[in-house]
Amino acid sequence: MLDSFEILTTSGVVLWSKTYAPTSPSIINSLITSVFIEERTLPGAGVADDISAANNPPYKYDQHTCKWTTVKELGLIFVAVYRSLLHLSWIDKLVDNIKIIFVELYGDQLRKPHTTIVKCAFDDYFDQQIRQLEKTALNRDTKVAESTALRAEAPASVTQDFGNEPPPLPGILSRGASKNNYKDLTSNESTPIATPDTSRPSTPASHLLTGKGGPGGKGSRRARKAANTPTAYASSGDELQSKRDKASKPAVAKKGRKWDADGLADEDSDTPLDYSAPANGATSGEDEIKERPGAMKEIDQSSWGWKNEKGEFFLKDLDDQVDSILASATAKKTDTVTSSTGIVGSSISAIGGYFRSIVGGKTLTKEDLEKPMKAMEDHLLRKNVAREAAIRLCEGVERELIGVKTENFESIQTRIESAMESSLQKMLTPTSSHDLVLEINAIKKQRPYVISIVGVNGVGKSTNLSKICFFLLQRNFKVLVVACDTFRSGAVEQLAVHVRNLKELTAREGTGKVELYQKGYGKDAANVAKDAVTFGAQEGYDVVLIDTAGRRHNDQRLMSSLEKFANFAKPDKILMVGEALVGTDSVAQARNFNAAFGNGRSLDGFIISKCDTVGDMVGTLVSMVHATNVPVLFVGTGQHYNDLRGLSVQWALKKLMSSN
Ligand SMILES: Nc1nc2c(ncn2[C@@H]2O[C@H](COP(=O)(O)OP(=O)(O)OP(=O)(O)O)[C@@H](O)[C@H]2O)c(=O)[nH]1
């Protein structure tokens, strides 16, 4: 458990702080005095070097430990204080990330001479990091728990090996892994800075900073949303809205909506969820939605999208901003490292290290490879690859290596690289061409090309459908977007917002044409899809893009309605969106969706969404392909309409083999 975090200048002025448990000011005062004022030599202390928190020795005082890092150029110190009894595996990452984010946000202001920041609204950014590191720690903990359970069944000689990763340790997780674990003892307001109370008394404040409050001072996205109280959201914003609504209303027992075998709502079972236009026959476009009070009319643009300097729309939130700050800092670091290495570079040395005991001139046997392959399997598990997929990949590598005569350590390492590369390549490379543009052009004169998007709830179906739509619009196609999520309240409006954004982009760029087809809620999705395809053909659309309701892959009833859907809509492509974050469940998700369409119909491809949020842990794409032999066609890399990429096997390989 973290007790407090402070950002202060080397002269002792506190720029920002957050306190979770009361701590004595003398802890940080003592750190400053010992390390920064008296410049006592601590082994490895890096005041002058801006080195990472992990490389600065912890400073211990009165049952507390301080982890810190510095930015010499700006004279800044970042300190986290926690009880020495605890081992917080994520603490160095927190300190380093906070340094990167703070410098990115306020660096320019701090560089200006004679500037004083009166108040800095950094709380949101700090909380975001705590949340994110908590989530990562939780994922790792779950994975290792699974791994440990499986190892318990393994022979005693097989020991658990975490490689370079520290084993999971109690910290945030030991307190229940909930985002409410921390009680903020400071107010919700950011800590005022540079006041006598918050300045460290032991040193002169030579470096007072003033200014307008930095980027955070403009108000967080969340704060703006709350202020605007919008009626519809383009992305998960509607979830926030519903949370606010719930909080402000007295609890009323809610009657469950009943669904029949086709996923249709029993009309009498509950209040209709239809907030869209009255379904008065074949409707297209968002105009009719607008006619309904409280639907689209009052949308405040700041609630659903941002515009960049060119005036282009994109969806963005705090997570996105922080991720891109950290990613660009990592990219700068990686550039320097990788410039002297190959695609995988030194990263594979983590696994190559297991071969050090094998001397040159030996012909490799299965026994020689047993330990290194186990290490490689663990490495892949840490990358979010499901166990059975990791085993299959390792078997491929093992097959290539057995019987190979070793020369020296370097040559084994190169062989592992190429064996793993070819094993991955075999798994990930589609066996037939999937050039969407070619396929659409081939049939567009006769009928529209029909694409439907399926997947579990919240994985990014609508967002990635919109990205595909944007891709098609840029290629001048005429696209009909169909709202077949007739189930979740707000889904139609959400899609309408995407269509409106895309229309605006299209109008500016003068390419393609897009309309929305929707029949509101509670209708049979298969019938809506069929009607939409007929409508699309009549109106000369090139592509019909169908969004569907999210469903749990193990919900028999909702999954069975996919068969009727496929029969009625007759899609040319059924694409499943799988979330990169999903982990081991990916195999079951992929298999169940692949088997749901009946009549020999199966999935045609995956879109792996949210790859930007998992760093190097892109194993989900391997797991899903392994489970089904269905190729990954696209990866989602963010929340902007152009954050969609075709799969590059080299990119996946580099991520999977890196030792981070
Ligand atoms: N960072 C990131 N976020 C994404 C990506 N794709 C989608 N999202 C976000 O994921 C959230 C859910 O996306 P939706 O498109 O609403 O998901 P959905 O599957 O249609 O949701 P349901 O209709 O409720 O099942 C939104 O906040 C999106 O902005 C991606 O590639 N990267």
Automatic annotation (TrEMBL):
Pfam families recorded: SRP-alpha_N (PF04086), SRP54 (PF00448), SRP54_N (PF02881)
PROSITE patterns: SRP54 (PS00300)
Membrane topology: Peripheral membrane protein
GO terms classed as biological process: intracellular protein transport; SRP-dependent cotranslational protein targeting to membrane
InterPro entries, A to Z: AAA+_ATPase, Longin-like_dom_sf, P-loop_NTPase, Sig_recog_particle_rcpt_asu_N, Signal_recog_particl_SRP54_hlx, SRP/SRP_N, SRP54_GTPase_dom, SRP54_N_sf
Location(s) in or outside the cell: Endoplasmic reticulum membrane
SMART domains per record: AAA, SRP54, SRP54_N
Matching SUPFAM superfamilies: Domain of the SRP/SRP receptor G-proteins, P-loop containing nucleoside triphosphate hydrolases, SNARE-like
Polar residues composition-biased segments: 177-205
Domain SRP54-type proteins GTP-binding stretches: 631-644
Primary localisation category: endoplasmic reticulum
Keyword terms, alphabetized: Endoplasmic reticulum, GTP-binding, Hydrolase, Membrane, Nucleotide-binding, Receptor
Signal peptide: none
MF GO annotations: GTP binding; GTPase activity; signal recognition particle binding
Region of interest (Disordered), residue spans: 154-294
GO CC field: signal recognition particle receptor complex
PANTHER family: SIGNAL RECOGNITION PARTICLE RECEPTOR SUBUNIT ALPHA
Self-association and partners: Heterodimer of an alpha and a beta chain.
Family: Belongs to the GTP-binding SRP family.
Name this polypeptide is given: Signal recognition particle receptor subunit alpha homolog
Organism: Mollisia scopiformis (Conifer needle endophyte fungus)
